[in-house]
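Hey, resending since the last one bounced:
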Amino acid sequence: MSKLNLLRQEFLKELHILANYTGDWRQLNSRPLMSATYEYFRNRHVENVVDFTAEEESQLKENLPKAYFQLGSQGALSYLIDYLERKEVFNYVRFRSACQFLIDDVGTFVPGSREKDEQIEEMLASFEDNDKYLELAGDDWEFCEYPVEPVPEHAGVPESHTWWKRLEDSYGPFLQRYG
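The structure tokens again:
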């Protein structure tokens, strides 16, 4: 089985789990879905895959509207992002790209409505308040807990995901100075 097929299976599994979660929203962990989404869609872009299988379409139509609700209205994405630490800056940009993939690449599987627009706004707002992860400046760098490895491979991420460029622009000088 190809790498992309394995990534597809993992994404669809995590999408189903998150979409069908019925417990306490504070216990809802969106990290597995966001990680699977990032890897799957990044690799779809690398391999120039644009079509979806019939099974994939069916699962997206069934689960994605509920996942939007969980991530947006129920605050699962906001909860995840709010509790990231500075040392998780790479996860911040991965999850931001995953969010954008859910909107741009498969958002058409969620019927257009005022609720969909509100959920998208909520998902995006999760990141707006946390842009601090991309703002490295001044002498306080030495007191911040940033990883010492270089920015991870992100082939397949569209140029429109400008947060990767911002990370490279600020993190590269940080590594040169403190890495």
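Residues 24 and 102 are 23 Å apart (CA to CA).

Sorry for the duplicate.
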